């Protein structure tokens, strides 16, 4: 059974695996009238492309996108937008040796349990490489949201024990592009880079936290009871491979607080209703309140490490040991930034249409 | 637009609001052949019923459930199961005074922004009372899962700064029923109760953490890429009103770890494949691996407090102050336990059918 | 597995069976701001109520509707509207004798094959009585559409070999209410009534054709490729129990024509684009063109007849004979009229929101 | 808003337009373990390919399919199967002249009304060419069904006034491949071919009827109330561009009959429950009964004709006349045969999984 689709009206269906022929996405439900070309998607794909620095996997992929449908005379025409990226630098040699030995921390065992027949090369469709589909969908969503002055900004806030200092929301985008770690706090970014390289040398990997902020979203996004905006964001973000937790606003810190300390009180600023604080991260009771929407994800260390690990040989049903070769990221956080942005963008775009802020058929029609 | 449905095959649609005539749920997609009567649902509803101790709201509701359809000769017959609870102890007097003044921390402002016409009495459909629908659906899901030896167990692990010690999974259920806080660590439970009562006296409320454990689920549950088991659990749990964060297994702690420290290595126990540790909380790459599934939620303090708070009068568009009367829980965690259990049960039941472990039409058919 | 829901945004979930406790519907996705009370639904239910004339089943049901949720101060508030009708005049005695003998023309055998455990009393959820759910949903859809000057009108056009003459669209509603057959051609109506009574006397039943016309729908309704307006209408209408065919506009007659004979040419009337003919029945290429939408359904004779019929005893697996007692309609067409209207109304309402003509959250917001 | 997906578990999402870069489909929800290669799809595509005889459009397209994902070592692996066909022989010159003049009988006006920005070249995504997506999805569905001994057979039963005689179900497939009209009655096929060629000479086109038979489907397919098997088949078939009516079994003829004449009585044949007649076309009350499933569609004449027709210039809003050039089929029925087969195959495959007859994850697992 499926599960390869995100969004209810703005729907992104993705396909493809790490070592297959191509990876792609079909975006159905994008209104007509949106100016869009391959370059809009390419820019976002370049942000997640591997091999761009010392701290990412050495796999070399150009990740050049090709749009197959849905654009007419430079604009979306309301029909599905299909876009693909061919896999080029495929090296499956390392995987034959371990095809019956599930790698600790990887989804191999679950996939085998579920499907029986499993593409074990590079993790198959369980690979991080499938997030190309997220990014294609997200690039289109971002372009759509830009037309409504909504911006989605991701950045790394923690790697291992190193935590970034909070930076003004409007500067994050600029700052994160300046370093390979995608952290807006320069000093922390340097330390993080060192930590990642150090971890890499030891054949290990390290986790971290990524934050995604949405600026400009109106109050009123989110459907009660089971399709709350934060629920849909949590769903989408938890769908990214390495994510083990999602929180909104203060997140897990709310457990330690009293309501009198963290309730966001209302005020009027420049004629608009705002809150004095934003502990709720822009979403209360599942509906946006017009403040910045703040979501954070816990990203586990890439499970592929070259150190020896215990596992089981599924053929002989005996315990054994593996060492994982292949090419991997010592810390996936920097490359998850554009993926998390894309993912949130899809959800916000979807809810903008669902709530009637964007016309479902053509963005030029007043909604 | 809707959003009042949970699950893809085992689908729970809920309706009703805090001060309306009734609250209920329709469960569509439950296979035929499951023995079920009103008492099965009533037992679960009683766990979340208000007015049962000093630390819950004094609102008195019997919450007696009535099944309207879907049961024939004591068993489900594959048709939708509708069940309702009539609201009895409705007191809307406190809400007239604040109908144009959104309460800090509550969804009022979002609901008004979205729907214009809003039932402000007791939070309307944004009230915690709507979780009666979750519990109805969850009770049926639990009954279904019991037939497949799957148990869902919730407990409070933290209130304010007080953290419970870890208890053997098999004892949690028994222990939590012994105290009103629903904490399995007796000593912590006593401290938590004191803290809640103390907070209540001050007209304030306090947050906490609830954990839900699923025992007995097979490996192979969860659909890649966008309907991963953890993603669907996160989605469902984040859909509970006061929840601001969801994590699986180690959760946010993964950020601080190296893969070599937390990868769950495989071994063989009693002829079955298991992992030596369970840092991943039973789900890797979005698919269950046969280990206990462990999810935790961050529950914010009930925003309704009697202390004065700043807000805005939406009619005059001037800043003002409110004091919230009405009847409220000083800590919602204990009553969220059965709701969180129900929510997880719905997702697991749904995925059991989606993965082919439970026959979609009749549980007596071998699957 | 489910299947008890109609519509994508305006969603109607129904429940209940012929001899169970209650029958009802939950409408999720109706925008806020629509004035609605029980009487709006009751009027439509009364049109399909049994026992109102010689040509319907003698089962006496008041079919009094009770709204449980979704209305606040006389208007919808955007939350799910649940409404129920309790079954009163239940007489299951006739069914015990035939519980292992599937009735020819009835769904019994399919239900047993599918679900194993089957409520055989009065056809269970396969009974025509479940269309109460359709009518509840349709009554709300009709009320919504009225606000946008869209009217849905059904009438009987054929019973047996007797065909009604075409009547001006604007007079159909008035004329059909004048006779129990719901046929707008008075002369044909009289003949039809005679034919039905004659058929009834012989212990038999007769089929017919019902047409549903939608006036006032704008051009632009319908989603390509797999959710065309006519496809969704066909789906919904074929979902009514006794329907064996659906056609739009000229329908099956197109097979005998050349394009030059039946293409609807465009013209301008009162400043608006219209077609000179309406052979396409208001839908071309799956999208409405602003002309009246015309759908017709083939309704089979009620399979319950008192004449002896061959069947099989499922317990002994031997061939046998049955005579069906119980209370039945000699011709279901007149009572299908309000059901078919309701069904089409749900689809049109759903597509009006999906196409952006009705705001998804509140009808008072300009769309 | 979307609408480019068919099926609930076995889901086919299609994309692409007549004169765009490519046309394709993504099949999500096909179980793992099914042997599949490009040739399986190519065989079906060849059946609908244009330019193969005098009676089809002269557009020359190789329609060579390329599989991008979802196959590993010659078998499906449970991940989405994406397949595309590049458009080659694109000639858009004829369309510039008529871009503001909606063609009678074509969807142009609806598309413009709905999306504003519309790809008018060759009908864009409203073109019959998009049924390549249906056929890709259907080819995979057919392959899946073959494993369960289910066969889908389509044939032309009427062109204009010429009706084919009924032929033994098991011979239809063989006979239809012998003539370009795809009619199993050889004599009628010859007359039909003459009629089509004659119509073509006059610059006109002609309609007809296509029947699709499903052999080997078990009893128990179809979900009450709103996802009945016949409702889903009607929905899918009505989604094919030129279809104006769908009927099951006797179809519209039921209107003229009494129940005593057409009720299918049960009997036992070779130890299995069967019906003596099959007037219901294998589906009663929305659920299959194990007999052959028989569906028929009314196909309108291709609206593109070279004769002059009245229309409106949307720019000047004045009435005008057009003559349609381009390349078109004088009768679309023969080429609709494989499309209708594909469409029914998708629905049957979907329902086989939904009803638990095919395991959702791997076909080799006993279901």
Automatic annotation (TrEMBL), chains A, B, C, D:
InterPro entries: Chorismate_synth (IPR000453), Chorismate_synth_AroC_sf (IPR035904), Chorismate_synthase_CS (IPR020541). It comes from the Archaea. FMN binds at residues 125-127, 285, 300-304, 327. GO terms for molecular function: chorismate synthase activity; FMN binding. Its EC number is 4.2.3.5. GO terms for biological process: amino acid biosynthetic process; aromatic amino acid family biosynthetic process; chorismate biosynthetic process. Pathway: Metabolic intermediate biosynthesis; chorismate biosynthesis; chorismate from D-erythrose 4-phosphate and phosphoenolpyruvate: step 7/7. This reaction introduces a second double bond into the aromatic ring system. Belongs to the chorismate synthase family. This is Chorismate synthase. The lineage of its organism: Archaea, Methanobacteriati, Methanobacteriota, Methanomada group, Methanobacteria. The gene is aroC.
């Amino acid at each position: 059974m499926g599960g390869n689709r995100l969004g209810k009206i703005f729907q992104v269906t993705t396909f493809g695996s790490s070592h297959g022929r191509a990876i792609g996405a079909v975006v159905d439900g994008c209104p007509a009238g949106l100016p869009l070309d391959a370059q809009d998607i390419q820019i976002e794909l370049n942000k997640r492309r591997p091999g761009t620095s010392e701290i990412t996997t050495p796999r070399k992929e150009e990740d050049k996108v090709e749009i197959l449908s849905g654009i007419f005379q430079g604009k979306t025409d309301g029909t599905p937008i299909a876009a693909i990226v061919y896999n080029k630098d495929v090296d499956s040699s390392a995987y034959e040796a371990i095809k019956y030995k599930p790698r600790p921390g990887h989804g191999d065992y679950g996939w085998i349990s579920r499907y029986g027949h499993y593409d074990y090369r590079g993790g198959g469709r369980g690979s991080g490489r499938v997030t190309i589909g997220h990014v294609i969908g997200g690039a289109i969503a971002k372009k759509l949201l830009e037309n409504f002055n909504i911006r989605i900004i991701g950045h790394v806030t923690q790697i291992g024990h190193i935590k970034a200092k909070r930076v003004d929301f409007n500067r994050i985008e600029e700052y994160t592009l300046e370093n390979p770690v995608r952290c807006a706090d320069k000093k922390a970014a340097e330390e993080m880079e060192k930590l990642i390289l150090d971890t890499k040398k030891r054949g290990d990997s390290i986790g971290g936290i990524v934050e995604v902020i949405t600026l400009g979203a109106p109050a009123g996004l989110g459907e009660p009871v089971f399709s709350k905006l934060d629920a849909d964001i949590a769903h989408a973000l938890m769908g990214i491979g390495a994510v083990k937790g999602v929180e909104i606003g203060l997140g897990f810190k709310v457990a330690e607080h009293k309501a009198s300390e963290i309730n966001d009180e209302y005020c009027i600023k420049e004629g608009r209703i705002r809150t004095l604080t934003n502990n709720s991260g822009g979403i209360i009771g599942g509906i946006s309140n017009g403040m910045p929407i703040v979501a954070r994800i816990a990203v586990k260390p890439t499970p592929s490490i070259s150190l020896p690990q215990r596992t089981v040989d599924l053929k002989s049903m005996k315990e054994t040991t593996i060492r994982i070769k292949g090419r991997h990221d010592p810390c996936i956080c920097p490359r998850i930034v554009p993926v998390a942005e894309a993912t949130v963008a899809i959800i916000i775009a979807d809810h903008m249409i669902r709530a009637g802020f964007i016309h479902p058929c053509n963005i030029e029609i007043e909604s």
